Amino acid sequence: MAWSRRRFAIWACVLGTATLAIGIGVATGAKLKTKSASETLSTGEFDDVTAKCKRGTKAVAGGFDSDIDFGGPTEAIIPYMSRAEGGRKWTSAGLNFEDPGELTSFAYCRDQKIKRRSEEETLSGGETETLTARCPQGTKVASGGFDNPDFVLNGTNIAIFPNESMKTGKREWTVSASNLAPDFGELVAQVNCHERKGLKTADEDVFITEAGVHDVVAKCAAGRRVVSGGFDYSLEPSLGAFVFSSHKIGKREWEVKAIDVIDEATLTAFAYCEKKKKAK
Fold first, then answer.
1. What's the rounded Cα separation, in Å, for the pair 131 and 144?
2. How far apart are CA 238 and CA 242, in angstroms?
3. What is the value of pTM for the model shown?
């Protein structure tokens, strides 16, 4: 009888461990829940807004959206930051050049272990730089972001805006940006890493031939869903080209919007996709 009780206890332990493993699998393979927060910026104002995941989940990825109205009474909020902060937050920040408008930050959340890494580079006035953050061994890119933590317009002038923020390898996230002001400032590239399989990349581009507001959408293949996304704009901000929106739409798509006021350009959206787990 004692042996039977011992055997029962062992099997209970095994079953409990198996249940825990299945639970973890379900959690890390679960759909992403979207949280968002918005802030109205007045003319000339720059500020940040943070979307926060609920307790028990992490900000696996994030994005941003802002108002642009090209021509007539204008709204023009240009983001200079969009990155994870801590475990549950995704913060975006922007500068409003024109009439009052809204800046929105998105956090894409689920119960998943994430490791964050970042790289910093000092940019002098007028300088353009490319910076790459790399995941630690044994992990792969889940998402990435950018930041200009020194952004100031009154007194000191620092204004670093990105034209590229995207995955460039299984473990790497690359950001390119230009400092449009005369003073030195820090550019930050952030990569958010997980221990799951690498994400598949879907991309779409549009060739821009005239001034205005432009958008492009990258779509994951059937049977996959978008986890994160990125963008690449062939023109630098110094030429009047700015990305003002980059975020998930629906289950499979990532949308990027940009404004171009001078030259021809190519705008590319990237969707980073995972395979959906079949329901058992």
1. 12
2. 9
3. 0.86
Nearest to 274 by CA among 226, 211, 241: 226
Q: Could you write out the DSSP letters of every residue in 227-274?
A: EEEEEEESS-GGGTEEEEEEEEETTTEEEEEEEESSS-EEEEEEEEEE
- The token pair at 253 is 């798509």
Q: Where do we find the tokens 């028990």?
A: 56
Distances (CA, A) of 203 to 73, 119, 170, 211: 33, 25, 16, 23
pLDDT of residue 210: 86
Closest CA to 142 of 151, 150, 133, 153: 133
List, run by run, the mean pLDDT of 10-residue segments along the chain (280 residues). Answer: 36 34 43 96 92 97 87 72 96 90 96 97 94 97 96 74 96 96 93 95 94 93 97 87 94 94 87 81
Instruction: Give the max Cα distance, the chain.
Output: 86
Q: What is the pLDDT, as a whole number, of residue 278? A: 63
Do the Cβ atoms of 232 and 166 come closer than 8 Å? yes
Instruction: Tell me what percent of the chain is helix, strand and coil, each rounded to the nearest 5.
Output: 10, 60, 30
At 258 the pLDDT is: 92
- Please report which helix (H) or strand (E) contains residue 192, including its range: strand 185-194
Question: What local confidence, expressed as pLDDT, does residue 174 receive?
Answer: 98
Whole-angstrom Cα distance, residue 112 to residue 96?
35
Give pLDDT, residue 76: 77
Strands 224-233 and 128-134: unpaired
User: Would you call 119 helix, strand, or coil by DSSP?
Assistant: strand
